[in-house]
Design goal:
The protein is of the alpha+beta class. The chain has 7 helices and 17 strands. A hairpin with a 3-residue loop joins strand 7 and strand 8. It is globular, with a radius of gyration of 20 Å. The mean pLDDT is 91.
């Protein structure tokens, strides 16, 4: 069962108000960890909800054979998922379990207790969209060996301001400080980001993005550098009222290193991206 949140509230209160279900049943789903908000499993009754948050309730079972986000493709070698915003790809020292990696591993091991998962590439915590994992270290290694050459990564984002040029290639040298903040520096590593304007409104621009390098936070930093920070970017942007980062990895095209065929995995542009443009006219 999937629910798109229409107003800010706490989880249990919202479910009571919007579900044709007994309060006892709702509490059971919450107690047994069958409820996910934006991909994060929660048993917290007062978990904060924001407009456009996605609630998923696993009504069929109480085991881990369920993923709280779509699987875009799966075969014996890889699994490609549609990552929600506001969830880590992999664990950090502060967070071990609320990660896409952990959930995918639990899902695979519910079908095969010996299943393993390996990181091929990553998305920032606040970035949503297409994310690929390998099912063996061998597959991971052959994908990563020439990742920038075999893959084309497309993103969409909404930025502050009216971008004048219809398209542009951004080339900057980026460096990371001790606190993990990435910035432009003459002695940093080269990062290349291309953009094309999809649409403009009075205060925002919707962009299509392709990247030629895979540096940490490069899209966010390079757009900030040209004075068009991404909407909802609390790390590199400006203060706004948006609850999520408006950056989405909508397409991943790969020349499969095994069979040499071209595969494209796509995720729909979140409706809030188009809505913010439409409402700003």
């Amino acid at each position: 069962m999937e629910i798109i949140v229409k107003c800010e509230d706490t989880l249990l209160n919202y479910l009571y108000s919007h579900l044709d279900m007994s309060k006892k049943k709702v509490k059971e789903y919450l107690k047994y960890g069958s409820i996910y908000v934006d991909g994060v499993k929660t048993t917290q009754f007062d978990y904060p909800l924001h407009v456009y948050s996605k609630i998923l309730i696993d009504t069929k079972s109480k085991n881990t054979s369920f993923l709280p986000f779509p699987i875009l493709y799966e075969d014996k070698n890889i699994i490609v998922i549609d990552k929600p915003s506001n969830i880590l790809t992999v664990a950090t020292s502060k967070e071990k379990e609320k990660t896409v990696y952990h959930m995918v591993r639990e899902y695979l091991q519910s079908h095969n207790k010996n299943a393993k998962v390996f990181i091929v590439h990553r998305l920032d915590k606040d970035t949503s969209g297409v994310l690929l994992f390998a099912k063996s270290e061998y597959i991971k290694n052959i994908y990563q060996a020439d990742w920038n050459s075999i893959s084309k990564r497309n993103y969409v984002c909404v930025v502050h301001g009216i971008v004048k040029n219809d398209s542009e290639k951004l080339v900057h040298n980026l460096k990371e400080n001790k606190t993990g903040l990435v910035y432009v520096s003459h002695d940093g590593a080269s990062a290349i980001t291309n953009y094309q304007v999809i649409n403009r409104s009075n205060h925002y621009s919707l962009l299509n993005i392709t990247i030629e390098t895979g540096k940490k936070n490069q899209i966010r930093v390079q757009l900030k550098q040209i004075n068009h920070p991404i909407v909802g970017d609390k790390k590199y942007g400006i203060k706004d009222s948006c609850k999520r980062l408006y950056l989405h990895a909508n397409k991943l095209t790969i020349c499969n290193p095994i069979d040499k065929k071209i595969y494209t995995y796509e995720s729909k542009i979140p409706q809030e991206f188009r809505k913010i443009i439409y409402n700003d006219r």
